[in-house]
Design goal:
Layout: H1 9-37, H2 51-118, H3 137-186, H4 192-223, E1 230-233, H5 234-244, H6 246-251, E2 255-260, E3 265-268, H7 270-286, E4 293-300, E5 304-311, H8 318-321, H9 345-355, E6 359-364, E7 370-377
Parallel strand pairs: 2-4
Antiparallel strand pairs: 1-3, 4-5, 5-7, 6-7
Helix pairs in contact: 1-2, 3-4, 4-9, 5-7, 7-9
Length: about 375
């Protein structure tokens, strides 16, 4: 039987059981005491001695006997009361122990249901509680949860199927439109208007393709099983992302403070984790000021691997920053002016971090700018080491 915490149903059951027992015991004790106090003690009359002298002596003797009997009766009542109180205290302790045991036994199926439900995630919705036992309220609750899991599994399967179908169906017309543009421009001496229109349409198609790619990655992170897990270094991914964006950093004359000292090993999907780091770095570059700065660092401890990216800039509202992990959420005109980005960057980061059992923290820096910190479960030393 697990240890009961304060405020749990088990503790309330124990207190209720003990309280009912104590109230019953006190009522029984009071009734016993009242009945014992109403008992009448009579003295059988003795033989009347002759003469008034003998009568006076007899009356004196009777009064003495009555006083002694009253004293004995009072002592017996006190002893009965003390003994009953001691018995009540002992039984109160026993009732608490028994109440705890009974509450634990009654609530044990609920604990099993709670533990099994906590283990359910998008990756194992096929599992069921399958509680055995008599058909009672607890069994009905377990069966209801199993039915809910079955409906959730069907919904997730439908979503994954839709993502797969959408990936194929939407990319096909995009490819067709690109081919049509290429054919139109490839004609002999195309007009300037045709070339300009083709360039504009290619730009819009690139945006749609980028947006579609973001949706697919977000859907995979939120609903897909991570079947390609491997040991991944956040430090190496950060270095690769910064190298790939070196031209954009130079174009904005950004100062990069590279504090990547640890490899910070974690375990997960290499493709998704690489996309996560790329999005964080991309967000720091795109939504930065001309001549601004970026500070990127990695760290690790025994339980987590950390990636932290900070940027300078204007002072942001923390309430708005908290919403950046939602799709299409942006802050201010400086974060909405980018024509080449879908607004899914940090929402994809949040989904990938959550899919790997980590947590993402977004903080508005008091001096201005944004701090993005991702913490993921650290990989075991046998999977690549830590550091």
């Amino acid at each position: 039987m697990g240890k009961m915490r304060s405020g749990t149903v088990g503790l309330r059951f124990t207190i209720l059981y003990a309280s009912v027992f104590l109230v019953s015991g006190i009522a029984l004790l009071a009734l016993t005491y009242l009945l014992s106090g109403n008992e009448a003690t009579t003295v059988a009359p003795g033989q009347q001695p002759p003469g008034r002298t003998g009568l006076a002596a007899a009356e004196q003797h009777i009064r003495e006997l009555e006083r002694q009997l009253s004293t004995v009766h009072a002592q017996q009542s006190r002893q009965l009361l003390v003994g009953s109180l001691i018995a009540l205290v002992v039984m109160a302790v026993v009732s608490l122990v028994l109440g705890r045991a009974l509450a634990g036994r009654v609530l044990r199926p609920l604990r099993l249901i709670t533990a099994a439900t906590r283990r359910v995630s998008a990756a194992n919705l096929h599992q069921r509680l399958a509680l055995t036992g008599p058909v009672d309220e607890v069994k009905e609750l377990a069966d209801t949860i199993d039915g809910l899991l079955e409906r959730l599994e069907a919904s997730f399967v439908a979503q994954r199927r839709f993502v797969g179908n959408a990936s194929h169906e939407l990319r096909t017309p995009l490819a067709t439109m690109r081919a049509s543009l290429d054919v139109a421009v490839a004609k002999p001496e195309p007009s300037a208007q045709t070339v300009a229109l083709a360039d504009r349409l290619r730009t819009e198609l690139d945006r749609v393709d980028h947006l579609l790619d973001g949706f697919l990655v977000l859907a995979r992170a939120q609903h897909g099983a991570l079947v390609d897990r491997a040991a991944v270094s956040l430090g190496e991914l950060a270095g690769q992302a910064m190298t790939a964006r070196a031209a954009d950093v130079a174009a904005k004359t950004l100062t990069v403070d590279d504090e990547v000292r640890a490899k910070a090993w974690t375990r997960g999907s290499p493709a998704l984790l690489s996309r996560m780091v790329e999005n964080v770095v991309d967000n720091a570059i795109v939504h930065n000021q001309q001549g601004g700065w970026i500070r990127i660092s990695t760290a690790h401890d025994r339980s987590e691997a950390h990636l932290v990216v900070e940027t300078g800039g204007v002072i942001l509202d923390q309430a708005q920053v908290d919403r950046l992990a939602q799709p299409f959420e942006r802050i201010g005109p400086d974060r909405t002016g980018s024509e080449d980005h879908s607004g899914l960057g940090l929402s994809i980061v949040a989904a990938i971090v959550a899919a790997h059992g980590g947590h993402l923290t977004l903080r508005a820096r008091p001096e201005g700018g944004l701090r993005v910190a991702a913490a993921l479960p650290a990989a075991a030393a046998a999977e690549g080491g830590i550091g």
